[in-house]
Amino acid sequence: MATRIFTVDYLSAIGVPPEQPGDVADSDTVLDDRPVTVLKYTQQRECVFRADGRTYAVTYQAPIDTGDYEVDQEVPGGHGWHGDTVEAREVVAWFVAVRRWQPAADAPPLTLRGRTLLEDLISMHEDGGLPSETAAVSAGEWLTYHADELAALMRPRLYSEAADLIEERQNDTECKFAKEFGELDWHTKTEGEAARRMARMLRDEIADAL
User: Fold this and answer.
1) How confident is the model at residue 58 (pLDDT cuts 50, 70, 90)?
2) Residues 142-190: tens digit of each pLDDT
3) Per-residue DSSP letters for 10-63?
4) More confident residue, 15 or 21
5) d(CA 50, CA 16)
6) What's the rounded Cα separation, in Å, for the pair 170 and 184?
7) What is the pLDDT of residue 112?
8) What are residue 7's phi and psi, to 5 degrees?
9) Contact predicate 57/89, CB 8 Å
10) Which segments of the chain are extended strands (E)?
């Protein structure tokens, strides 16, 4: 795990940690600030910030919002850090799908949503906390990056469906021709052989890919 040592003074100068979680929206350096766990008298939070073109995370202690309960609301001394330096972990953004429960009326089945794959990906990124514009860019980049992989995954199914459709259409044509004329002429037989040869070639492509 890549780490880096920062001085407390340096972190303070760039606004780490923020005085309030909402300050992240107005910061060019602090990217995220979230709760990690609750300790006996304080909460532990993680602050993600940018320094020298890289992204780092540090944990610190902050007061617990206890409403009307009489708990010391002062910031823990030195944010719970000891000494003049703090070790930070280098981090990268990583988006994951999460399961959420909501009223059934607000969550129709995927097949009834009428949304495209890109729209679903954008929605997932937005649920992960990204602004709509950033979510759209990230979803598009994800599709572009994985385009070849997605195509490779889809190709066997598409080839199989194409082979089935070719044979089905050719069988229908031959049945109609036989009912009307009693037998197949040379051209129809030749077309049938070519169509079935194409279907076999598609299935061979699937076998080679597996």
Assistant:
1) very high
2) 888 888 888 888 888 889 999 999 999 999 999 988 888 888 888 888 9
3) HHHHTTSS-SSGGGGGG-SSEEEEEEEEE-SSEEEEEEEEEETTEEEEEEEEEE
4) 15
5) 10
6) 12
7) 47
8) -80, 150
9) yes
10) 3-7, 30-38, 42-51, 54-63, 85-90
